[in-house]
Every structure is written in C-alpha cells, then in structure tokens.
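Sanity check

After download, print the first record. It should look like this:
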Amino acid sequence: MKRLLLFVLIIMGFCGRFASDAKRCPVAQVVVEPVEPLLVRPVQDDMQCRLWVDSVLDRLSLKERVGQLFIYTIAPHQDKSNRELLRKVIEDYKVGGLLFSGGLMQNQVVLTNEAQRMADIPLLITFDGEWGLSMRLRDTPAFPKNMVLGCIQNDSLLYEYGREMARQCKELGVQVNFAPVADVNINPKNPVINTRSFGEDPVNVANKVIAYARGLEDGGVLSVAKHFPGHGDTDVDSHKALPVLTFTRERLDSVELYPFKKVIEEGLGGIMVGHLEVPAFEKEPGLPSSLSLIVGFILITQGTPMGFDGKMEVTTLEGQEQMVSQGPVAAIVPIKQLGTNGGGYFGVNSSHPLENPTYLSNIVECWSILIIPMAMVFALGFYTKRMKLAYSIYGVMLCAYLAGVGINVYQEMNGNPRIDDMGIAQDNGAMEGKEIRLGAGATALWSITTTVTSNGSVNGMHDSTMPLSGMMEMLNMQINTWFGGVGVGWMNYYTFIIIAVFISGLMVGRTPEFLGKKVEAREMKIATIVALLHPFVILVGTALSCYLFAHHPEFVESEGGWLNNPGFHGLSEQFYEFTSCAANNGSGFEGLGDNTYFWNYACGWVLILSRFLPIVGQVAIAGLLAQKRFIPESAGTLKTDTFTFAVMTFAVIFIVAALSFFPAHALSTIAEHFSL
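Expected structure tokens:
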C-alpha cells in the first residue's frame, strides 16, 4: 500500500499542465462528484503510512524520482545476463517497478525476491493477467477467459473471482494487475480483443469489469481497466497498426466509453490508454500525442544532434579543430520550449549553432514557446462555452505581443546611432550580442516571444539590445499578462478582468458581473492587491539595490562589484534582474554581476513573493465567486466579450501595470535611449 501511494504522489508531482485544443467537439457539461480512489481510502487516515511516503519522497533525487515513474519489462530467466540486466535497471536506473513477460512461476518468484532485496525503495511488481496467472505463467491455475465469465448472471461471483486473483497475485508479490478488459467486443473480426472482452453489451461489460476490479482492489491489488477509449469495434490489431475509431461522440459515449465512465465513477484505481486514433476527439489525422516529437524531428532535420555519441570534432571559422559535446539535444530542446522553461543543453542556450541551427529551427522553437500559452486562452472559452470571450482576450494579448515585436524589430534593424556616427555600416542592424546566422530581426522576435511567455531561453544577449528594446522586454515581464507561460497569462488577465468589470460596471451603471457571478468589494480588493504586488516587489527590490550601490559602495565592492555600466544602463540591469525573477522568466541583462549573496538572497525573496502570493489571491477570488449564486444574463448585465470591454481591459492593464513602471524606465531605458 505504501508503494502504491508513493507511486501516485510521484506521478502527481510530475504532472504538467495541459491545454485543450479548441477544435475538439464540445461535450455536454456533466457534474460528477469526486470519488476517492478505492485503494487510497484506507491510507488517508494512516499517519504512519503517510509519514513513510513523505520521508521517502523527500530524500529522492531528481534522477530517482524520474526512475520511479518507469516500469521495466524483463523476462523471468535466471541466467547470468538477465540477472545482470535486472541489477542494472534497479541499481543504475532506479526504476519504480517491474513487469515480468511470462514463463515459469518459480523463476518470477525468485527474481522478484532478488529484485526487492536489491532495491533501495520497494518495487511495484506488475502483472498482465486478464484471466489469471495462467495467461502468462505456466503451471498455474487456469480460469475461463472473460467472454465466458461475461455470461455469468450473478456479478458477485465476478467479485469473488477478483478476490481470488488478488490473493494469487499477492502470493507472487504482485501489486498491480493490468486487468480487466473494459472493451465492448461488438466486431466479430476483431483480431486482438475478442474473447478477452466480457461481451457485446456495454452495461453488462461495465458491471462485470466493476465487480472483477473491485474484487482485485478489495484484495489489495490495483486494477487497470483497458484499453481506453475502447478497442472492441475495430478489425485492426493495435500492436501492428493504428486503429481508427470513426464513430460519433454520441456513439462513443453510449458504447466504448460507457464501461470506463462507470469504472471512474466507482473510484477504481487505474486505466490503460489504447493505441488508437479517435477523430471525434482530434480532427487532425495522425497527430501524435506529443508535440515534442514533432518539434524534435524538425530540429534533427536542421542539424540538431540526437544521440549518445559523446564529443564531436568540428572545424571553427578560424580553421581550428574543436571538440563539442553531443547528446539527445533534439529531444530535450522541444520539451524545454513547450514547457516554457528556458534552460539550454549548451552553455549559450538557443544561440548555440547546434541547439538552434537555422532560421527554420528558430521559428519552430518560437512557435513551440507560444503554442500552449496561446491554446490556454482557447481552452478557457471551450470549457466555459464562451468562445467569444476567449477570442476577445486572445485579441488583446496578440495585439500587445505584435506591438512589442514591431518595436523591437524596428529598433534592432535600424542599428545604433553611435555606431553610425563612427562611419561603420549597419546594413544588418544592431549586431552586438547577436548570431550572424540569425540576425537582428530574428533575435528581436525571440526576445519578445520569450519575455511574454515566461521563457528564459535566449538566442542573443538581451543586455546588448537597444534601450527601447530592453524596455519592451521588461514591460512584457512587468505586465506579465500577454500569454505568460502555460496558463499564467490567463491567470493574471483574470485579475485585471475583475478590476475592469468592477470599474466598467460603476461607470455605466451596470451590475459588475463576470461569468454569471457578481463582482463585489471583496473580490475587487483582492484583485487590486494582486495587481499592485507585482510592481511593488520589483520596484522595492530595485530601489534597495540602487541604495546599496550608491550609499554602501564598500559592500558592493566586497561582493566583487555589480555593474560595469554604472549609468542609465546599470539601473536597467538591476531593474531587469528583479523583473525577470518576479515574472518567472530567468533571462537577464548579463552585464550584472549577480552571483553574490545579496542578489541570490534578494532574488530568492522576490521569487517567493511574486510567484506564490498572487496565486493565493487568484484562487481566493475564484473561491468567493464559486460560492455565489449564478445570475443569468439580462439587459442590465455588462457584457465582457465585446470589443469595447476588451479595450477597457487593456486600458486597465496599461494604467495599473505599465504606468507603475514608467518612472523607473524614465531613469533607465528611456534616458539611455535619449543619451545615444
């Protein structure tokens, strides 16, 4: 039980946030009361169990936590090579579980015991036994296949059958059984399900699956219903090809999905996803579930390394030979960009020619950074059934983003007037701190894309961009609303919508309402605090660093000095540092010497205050609104999905957020611009 709980918590810890595609078919909203998983219920009040799980989880390294997510398939053979493989996956890879592929029961028992002795953390031993141990292991009790069991009228017999399966599994040290099959077998030509199913009646299949699975879980073994969303009506073997379920959503709900819905409602623990394509859920054919795979393939075609061959010898522009590390770069870069992370495989991040080789790779990575934050806005419209509201929010964000791109591209392509005065041609724009293969325009696009999305990757040095470009980069993070990472932009936009609704309602004499809930003074106060906290933290941090630099130079010198440019640009560097920390970006004006006690501690506090406190406020507003009575729209309701309200929201954002920072910009980026 402890192992199962540990496994569940580790998976929860690694769960990302996913965007829903707005093109998917709308589904009627059905309110389903949350059900506590059956196997988790006994440990909820078991303090000793929870303390054990927490203590184990706390001491695991990142590598060990990742390893715990994997279940390794291994043959139950007691030869030397197989034992060495078993040792390697447990001791080196730190896997969380094992799945024995079949063979002799005695061998599996011996190897299970050996594996548990080798493991620092108890292993999850899994089994694929749909109709008992005899499905995989010789010389074990044989039971009828599910098609026969589906004819039994008394479902309590299926429950007892599940209890007996659990008992036998536990005798072998098995904690997870990948059973039962919840597919409704209504295609006589099905080559892979057939007698593995309980039958052709969805209701009967659901009843049998629940009874069998409940017996397993009451016996202490996790059940896993499969193969979601339903594999019964296809004549294609999913082990060899990709079956396509060309059914309507109504048909899927009534047949294929019916047993799985019932399993979930009963609180049973596991579901296995099938290798299937379902056009009712995804209109684009052949679309992989992972965008990272698509982006990775494109990067490979552009020359990004993908392998484990170690160092590679390359010839530099000077004609010298240099050893360059390789690795699975093409696999790592899409993950970091789609997740708006920013950390690079190579030291110079996305400016490195092997991480971002060409114009095509540059635009693909920009797309990767933007696609999920953009999709989150449409996901809002999809789930609230207010696509018009989503379009208006997206329009405001897109216009602000494009305005930033236009300003930065113009500034960088026109070059530095000081260099013009020296008589040096700037046909390619302001090229200081930029890669020649990408140019000033592509770097300007990248700088805006990453600063609107909380992505810290760079393909050029922001510290070397023109003053007004630096201002736009900072304003994107200071406003922190235009797309803003995976859902972060919408969260912050939500705060400003509350303020805009309240102000607009008072201005026109309409009831301040949002999504059918009345916005009152309490929500307005929280939203105002959240909106003002961001500039407060950034400006206070910047003021403190400036004070120390001006009045305590001995302290600054004791830390090695902070600034190479103590004028307007030096203020910009400090301003940018706190802005980047507060906005979860991670980039910087790297002329600042910031790896010191002061900057590490100061930025640490800014990280905590700026990232956690606003979430508390936003959740509080959501909670307050959720408690209120739904008010249907009427003639007196202020509409929030109009062009007028979109402009009003933009004005509120600009006044509250942007103008808070303009006095500081007047002394830094703007002053630097006019000094050129």
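If your output differs, re-run the checksum step. Summary of this record's structure: The chain has 24 helices and twelve strands.
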